[in-house]
Amino acid sequence: NTGFLPTSGSEAAIRAQVARPVEVELIGAHILQGPAEHKLGHLPGRSSHGGFNTTKKVEWLIKAQSGSIITVCARAPRAGNASTAITL
User: Fold this and answer.
1) pLDDT tens digit string along 51-77?
2) Model pTM?
3) Which one of 18, 63, 64, 79 is at 20 to 30 Å from 88 when CA atoms are compared?
4) Per-residue confidence at 48, pLDDT binned at 50, 70, 90?
5) Does residue 4 sit within a domain?
6) How far apart are CA 71 and CA 17, in angstroms?
7) Does a structural domain hold residue 56?
């Protein structure tokens, strides 16, 4: 999360359980290992005091044809959506 605010919007939203966590999904490949969707939890923003990890890592083992395009989508209802296409 490179934004100023956390993906939850606020700590109060987490305590009230109204902020859904960040989810990352892989589309367009046969997944051999790992879930199609990962729930990453909430990511702090730049407004947090130092020492917080603003990134998370996910891994998939996939099978796809060379030249295939796969898409990685990240969603957080309060923070927005992002996706990137990768050509294999």
Assistant:
1) 567 778 899 999 989 999 999 999 988
2) 0.75
3) 79
4) low
5) no
6) 29
7) yes
